[in-house]
Amino acid sequence: MSDAILAARGLLFSHPGATAPLFQGLSLAVTRGQFTGIIGPNGSGKTTLLMLLSGVVAPQAGEVCLDGRPVRSIHPRERARLVAVVFQESRMLFDFTVLEIALMGRAPHLRPFSLERPQDFAAARAALREMDLADREGKRLQELSSGERQRALIARALAQEPRIVLMDEPTAFLDLKHRLQIYEILKRLNREKGLTVVTTSHDLNLAARYGSRLLLLHHGRLAADGPPDAVLTPRLLREVYETEVLIERDPVTGAPFVVPIAPL
Amino acid sequence: MAPLTSRRLALSIVLLLAAFALSVAVCASLGSSRYTLFDLVRRSADEETARAMILRVRLPRILMAALAGAALGAAGAVFQAVLRNPLADPYILGVSGGAALGAFAVTALGLPALAPVLPVRETAAFLGAIATVAILFLLSSARGRIVSYPMLLIGVIMNTVYLSLILLIETVVEFSRLHGVRLWMIGTIPIEEYGLILWLSVVLVAGIVGLALYGRDLNLLSAGEEAARSLGVTVERTRVVTVVLASLVTAAVVSVVGPIGFVGLIVPHAARLLFGPDHRLLVPASAVTGAIFLMLADTAARTVMAPTEIPVGVVTALCGGPFFLWLYRRRAGGGYFE
User: How far apart, in whole angstroms, are the C-alpha atoms of residue B249 and residue B73?
Assistant: First the structure.
């Protein structure tokens, strides 16, 4: 088995109705057991790339392989046992409770048309404990704070017991504490359980602090790919984000720290 | 609400069936004549009359109302989930209207004479329902995703067009063949043969059980289309199967009782409050709750102004209209529409 758990080759994708394709022959690989951050300005294709990597959305050409198998050819249920996705959109149409939401993550492990078994309840509750939501299991999603809501959706992803978690802006609407909390939990799962984590982020400093590798997207192309030190350079960021920046050192972790100066 | 376990599922079903049996007994004991179920067992001079009144007149009508309510309740719960719109209901979406137009058009053409060969009315009703859902899906998807807001507007337009077409056909075709059309158009429960009731029960029970079996997929769909996909749901298949089954059960009852409004809207919301949002229980619970609701509504329709009867569609619309407005205000404020 190669080091790449996810490999995208020659992805072509355009949104319905778009004039130009977003991705034109994009190729990249996600390394097994790595914590990868996808960064890039608005509209650079971060979310779409995540959807394509997850197999939820099909590219118009090219393919994504999961452990060497084309991800779109894997049965959706089996795929859901390997890859979990945490979406930005966190609303539920109906008033499901936190435990019910975590139990939804067990769906790919159940036979069709069956109820959850005791081991599914155990897995869902373990995921909720992991997310520090054990005392919230009877609450409805609408009753939670946005940080708790995000954690509930991550718990659903963990209950899938996947090998890869793909997260779209997991901390977009969270305050400082909850941002750090979620990244700390992800880092721990990555370290202790070898979970492969891919997150998109607008927060370059968080991405640099937790990601061991960053992918910098620019207009659907890979502008840079490597460890934070190689990606977060004043020259690259000026070109991609059209912003003058200084790169300092994060005094806690030693990771590069982006100080924006002025837009170009 | 505790999460669904086999114990809670079984208990809830037993509770629902007990409430159903009780409602049948109550409704069978109410009417413009004062016979009650006790008259069936008590020896009295007019035992024969009581028997005929309850078993030949009231009971078939009660059972027909129950079947219609069950179908519309279950279909409403399913449409709300699969179209991702808590205000959806077969009537508001125009699905019932499409079924009514289909059934009405073939009746006007005199096609039910072919009935021994093919259930013409029911088939036409089904095609009308399916065509409506297809139009809804086509017009309310943007960038390959279902957008729930325009759906209600499309439903309103379709309903208006269907009603106009029905009135047009009625004007053109000689009236005698279409006796009772106006009553049927707002929904009335006829007294049917037990044979038809049995046949309908088989179709509806099969359809509703089929829908309940897709309950977990419907749960996952309420987390969003992409989320459902990422959790292993084959969204297209789930959508096609559930929409076809929901249209089938809707059409089967609409071809008999007409387009009764709002049952599919009120009932799933009430059932969700009582039994929680899990569709594995919600679909059967909506079916039984719908059966009870329409039985009671029809009993009210035939007793409140007895011996004059109000069409049951009037009763459900008078309950459902204000309910819809209340729900719309509550939900629209709660940010349900993207």
Answer: 10
B86 to each of B62, B92, B134, B328, how far by Cα in Å? Answer: 28, 12, 19, 9
Question: Which sign does the torsion angle of CA A125, A129, A131, A136 carry?
Answer: positive
Amino acid of residue A183: Y
Whole-angstrom Cα distance, residue B183 to residue B29?
25
C-alpha distances in angstroms, A109 versus A103, A132, A154, A232, B233? Answer: 10, 23, 17, 40, 12
- Reference B71, options B257, B315, B273; nearest CA is B257
What residues of chain B lie within 8 A of the CB of A77, using their CB?
232
Helices marked H in B173-262 — which ranges? Answer: 181-186, 194-213, 215-221, 225-230, 235-257
Q: Does A93 contact B226 at a Cβ distance shorter than 8 Å?
A: no
Minimal Cβ distance to B227: which of A87, A100, A115: A87
| pLDDT tens string B45-86 | 777 787 887 788 889 999 999 999 999 999 999 999 988 888
Number of neighbouring beta carbons within 10 Å of residue A111: 7
Spatial separation of the C-alpha atoms in residues A23 and A58, rounded to whole Å: 12
The Cα A46–Cα A220 span in angstroms is 8
Spell out where chain A has E strands.
4-13, 23-31, 35-39, 61-66, 69-70, 83-86, 164-167, 196-200, 213-218, 221-226, 243-249, 256-263
Q: Write out chain B residues lying below 8 Å of A107, CB-based.
A: 216, 220, 231-233
Q: What are the residues of chain A with a beta carbon less than 8 Å away from any beta carbon of chain B?
A: 15-17, 51, 54, 56-57, 76-81, 83-85, 87, 89, 91-97, 99-101, 103-105, 107-108, 110, 112-113, 115-116, 121, 142, 160
A93 vs B6, B86, B144: nearest CB: B86
Joined together, the tokens standing for residue B237 give 């298949």
* Shortest Cα distance, chain B CAs vs residue A242, angstroms: 30
At residue B114, the pLDDT reads 58
Under 8 Å between Cβ of A199 and A38: yes
Which residues of chain A have a pLDDT value below 70? 1-2, 90
Residue A169 burial (CB count, 10 A)? 19
- Residues B161, B155: contact at Cβ < 8 Å? no
- Signed CA dihedral, B56, B61, B66, B71: sign only: positive
Choose, out of A94, A125, A128, A166, the residue to mutate when testing the contact with B (most B CBs < 10 Å).
A94
Q: How many angstroms separate the Cα of A45 from the Cα of each of A158, A208, A219?
A: 25, 19, 7
Which residues of chain B lie closer than 8 angstroms to A84, CB-CB?
230
A·B CB contacts under 8 A: 92
Lowest mean pLDDT among A65-69, B45-49, B161-165, B254-258: B45-49
| Structure-token match 């819809």, residue found | B324
